[in-house]
């Protein structure tokens, strides 16, 4: 079977470092030595394994990050989640490696080269440093990813030839074992592979024999395969504490880009995302951002998230971000709104509603829809924006009956009708409304469209048992 191994030597650094950083190095606090560094730090003379004091002396401006294995493992899981659309057999090799079973994927992606290009493109889009190698066993692929040549070839014979020339330092053998082999004159794997397996077991300890057996495929090497969850969740630890929504914007964009890629591969959209902000010495701040219609594009989610952040002042600096999208919905068909946007038309209603909700809060953006009640103050009820209203239930079974045209109603209603004693010019009416007998609040009124002395168009009514006119509202 053919395998790929993805070695990500600067996984934490690539995950945490800003887009345009100065010298940055990751230091393992157990021994205060540099384990990862970027190019600016390397140009200043900082090297892997260098002590903290020496690195700080060489470059006073170097930004030091504590090594976090948990962060790298979490990032590996996120990458495996994204790669699952390209390669089905994925196994994590913490803290900074992934195995990919390539044999079944080569045909699916129309060749080994196309398959590898997609893998590298996925990693490059996330600005990850990588060394990708192939091998006929999992250990062989990992060994070659750490070797000077880093071959990426589907031919087993070529790979075996490269393995024979690999130095012992590229293996996972303990330093004590490597030193012992070098004293015996064995400096490359070729010196080990020429020894028959039985002699190898007799002359050396068991771990060495098992390593060589798994390397060449004589012994099985079972791996646990990754099973992706059915939702999106990604976390980012920030390289430094941030105190404003503007500073958080590029980090939010990274997470939204990941979400867009995740939804694109599944042909899905989401109506709601959850953003959790890890605050210094405080409980996390959890924000729920919704869209009036399902959305997948990062460029659409970005302003909604930013507007929501602006409505929630930060009570403490932010140390990390977590973006979650749980309910995935089928992508709707292409709509007129989408076609209009391509031709530079006005903002789609769903997009406008989402922006208003992000700015004002979801509970402050409402729509009105018609209710089955003729009383003016009960004829409309609040509903969610763009919610399709149910058609009124048919109280007649006569299918041939044609619906009556809608009656003219004023744009402005008074909460309490006012007694009106001035002259009115009747324009239209009366319209008898008899209703409310079923709930103990009966109304019998004759409504008129009228014009007052000031030229205003009014909606006024009279009641059989009460003298005079009552003003209900004004027409716009």
UniProtKB/TrEMBL annotation:
GO biological process assignments: DNA repair
Domain UmuC: 23-145
Chain residue ranges for the region called Disordered: 383-403
Keywords (A to Z) from UniProt: DNA damage
Name of the protein: Protein ImuB
Organism this protein belongs to: Marinimicrobium koreense
